[in-house]
């Protein structure tokens, strides 16, 4: 590869504290994450020690209340942290996003007692979370989930199987959506389930096209007993909590997608300025220059879109439509840009000697997780034209 130094992304950050935070994140990413990313992804190794370091540095609870170990950072800043982490290794950026998603229910709908008891360990105590909504037969149609929680005195007994769970089998806590009432969205309740609960187990992780270092597995709940004190929110409120969490989580996926796209662009530019054909660097040829320009423009547009949505959230204004737009546009951009990066590298781009092919494989999953991009289009259209007539 070229010795040409990659230029940091020019960011508009609201405070000096935020600028120092991003500098810290870049340093951790360059020293602790990026150098081992290719080898560990190829081996399917999850970097738990990196998450311990991030927790110690206060990076696993950035958007949450400092009273409980959070960083009290606006989403505008938190998402740019995710972007930097994902550019170094998507397993890490996505993992932080999922952990933040798993902490959301308790941080926003938990009682004061629950928050005092659990949040400090979740946000800064080295714990890792997982978010359990999807099931094998209820992915996009999440309200049809079948995992059930039955009241037994002061406890609840949970039974069922969750699917496609990031950190399944290695998480220290699981935010689980289970049915406590009738069919449909109003019969769902949220629970905080310890990772070592009796009756909780995980299947062998899925064999995936990309993101091999991040375990994705079914999680089985076989008569898992949890105290009512671990119910989050009121009975029947769980689906609303889940959707609210996903609005914020979609912004996390958007930021991760731009991180992957930026990494792919950086590699493409470095390669194009080094590789010579017909006596010139291939970056001299107009067709390739235009391709790089289009890649960079798509990335900047995606970054602006997710930041605009984040600023709405930070201002306490509705942002669900903009979150869906950001998730849709940024993940589609990541797919286009990574495919183009492979093309820039030519035959080398198709080999594992360069990370371009890994970026392309990883980008695909971002169009699927936390609501497929077809679902995002449905969400956006409902905001524009109202619910579909049946």
From TrEMBL:
The keyword Flavoprotein applies. InterPro entries: Acyl-CoA_DH_CS (IPR006089), Acyl-CoA_Oxase/DH_mid-dom (IPR006091), Acyl-CoA_Oxase/DH_mid-dom_sf (IPR046373), AcylCo_DH-like_C (IPR036250), AcylCo_DH/oxidase_C (IPR009075), AcylCoA_DH/ox_N (IPR013786), AcylCoA_DH/ox_N_sf (IPR037069), AcylCoA_DH/oxidase_NM_dom_sf (IPR009100). Residues 15-125 form the Acyl-CoA dehydrogenase/oxidase N-terminal domain. Keywords: FAD, Flavoprotein, Oxidoreductase. The keyword Protein biosynthesis does not apply. Gene3D superfamilies: Acyl-CoA dehydrogenase/oxidase, N-terminal domain (1.10.540.10), Butyryl-CoA Dehydrogenase, subunit A, domain 2 (2.40.110.10), Butyryl-CoA Dehydrogenase, subunit A, domain 3 (1.20.140.10). This is Acyl-CoA dehydrogenase. It comes from Streptomyces bauhiniae.
């Amino acid at each position: 590869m070229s010795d040409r130094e990659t230029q940091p992304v020019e960011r508009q950050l609201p405070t000096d504290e935020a600028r120092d935070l991003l500098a810290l994140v870049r340093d951790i990413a360059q020293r602790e994450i990026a150098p081992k990313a290719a080898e560990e992804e190829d081996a399917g190794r999850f970097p738990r020690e990196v998450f311990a370091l991030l927790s110690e540095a206060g990076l696993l609870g950035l958007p949450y209340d400092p009273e409980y170990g959070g960083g009290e950072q606006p989403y505008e800043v938190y998402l740019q942290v995710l972007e930097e982490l994902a550019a170094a290794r998507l397993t890490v950026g996505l993992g932080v996003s999922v952990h933040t998603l798993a902490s959301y229910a308790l941080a926003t709908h938990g009682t004061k007692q629950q928050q005092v008891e659990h949040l400090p360990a979740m946000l800064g105590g080295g714990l890792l979370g997982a978010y359990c909504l999807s099931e094998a037969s209820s992915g996009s149609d999440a309200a049809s989930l079948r995992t059930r929680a039955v009241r037994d005195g002061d406890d609840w007994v949970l039974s069922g199987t969750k699917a496609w769970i990031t950190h399944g089998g290695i998480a220290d806590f699981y935010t689980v959506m289970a049915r406590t009432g009738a069919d449909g969205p109003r019969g769902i309740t949220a629970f905080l389930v310890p990772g070592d609960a009796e009756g909780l187990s995980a299947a062998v992780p899925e064999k995936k096209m990309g993101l091999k270092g991040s375990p994705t597995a079914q999680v089985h709940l076989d008569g898992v007993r949890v105290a009512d004190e671990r119910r989050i929110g009121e009975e029947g409120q769980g689906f609303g909590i889940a959707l609210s969490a996903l609005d914020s989580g979609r912004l996390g996926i958007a930021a991760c997608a731009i991180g992957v796209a930026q990494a792919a662009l950086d590699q493409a530019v470095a390669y194009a300025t080094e590789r010579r054909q017909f006596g010139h660097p291939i970056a001299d040829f107009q067709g390739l220059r235009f391709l790089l320009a289009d890649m960079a423009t798509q990335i900047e547009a995606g970054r602006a879109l997710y930041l605009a949505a984040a600023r709405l959230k930070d201002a306490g204004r509705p942002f669900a439509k903009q979150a869906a737009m950001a998730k849709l546009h940024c993940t589609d951009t990541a797919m286009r840009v990574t495919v183009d990066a492979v093309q820039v590298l030519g035959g080398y781009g198709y080999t594992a000697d360069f990370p371009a092919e890994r970026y392309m494989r990883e980008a695909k999953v971002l169009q699927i997780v936390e609501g497929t991009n077809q679902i995002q289009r449905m969400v956006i259209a409902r905001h524009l034209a109202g619910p579909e007539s049946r």
